[in-house]
């Protein structure tokens, strides 16, 4: 049960000392973004390499064993699909690294995590004020 003799300042200072360190949260977010961006970049490179190898192996076989138009259409479809997939993964990786850079440097249109953290802090502060403010008011009214 809460100790009614503690002041509002003691409660706020104790609660603020037990909060998570913002640097630790930021490092976890940075590590996650680097992992996601690096994974997407590797996936982009592997897709590009796989597309080139598949075309190198499949094109001569299709040309030798099929009519000319069918392998040409299949080759074009494979080339377009491979390059689009590779480009899409590359753009996703660049976007992740761009977000990471803007998050770490604090540039851009304002960090969403900062706004969310500020809103959480305001809500917690208001809750504490209501909880202990009403308790103190009730104690004062009983004393009168």
TrEMBL record:
Keyword Signal: no
Coiled-coil ranges (or none): none
Domain of life from the UniProt record: Eukaryota
Stored PROSITE patterns: OLEOSINS
Region (Disordered): 1-23
Subcellular location field: Lipid droplet; Membrane
TM regions (residue ranges): 30-56, 68-101
Protein keywords: Lipid droplet, Membrane, Transmembrane, Transmembrane helix
Membrane topology value: Multi-pass membrane protein
Protein family per UniProt: Belongs to the oleosin family.
Protein name: Oleosin
Top-level taxonomy: Eukaryota, Viridiplantae, Streptophyta, Embryophyta, Tracheophyta
């Amino acid at each position: 049960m809460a100790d009614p003799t503690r002041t509002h300042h003691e409660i706020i200072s104790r609660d603020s000392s037990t909060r998570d360190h913002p640097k630790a949260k930021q490092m976890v977010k940075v590590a996650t973004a680097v992992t996601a961006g690096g994974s997407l970049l590797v996936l982009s490179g592997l897709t590009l390499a796989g597309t080139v190898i598949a075309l190198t192996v499949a094109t001569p076989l299709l040309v030798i064993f099929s009519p000319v138009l069918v392998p040409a259409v299949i080759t074009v479809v494979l080339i377009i699909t491979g390059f689009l997939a590779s480009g899409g993964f590359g753009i996703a990786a660049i976007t992740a690294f761009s977000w990471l850079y803007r998050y770490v440097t604090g540039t851009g249109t304002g960090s969403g995590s900062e706004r969310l953290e500020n809103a959480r802090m305001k809500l917690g502060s208001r809750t504490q004020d209501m909880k202990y403010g009403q308790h103190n008011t009730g104690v004062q009214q009983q004393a009168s």
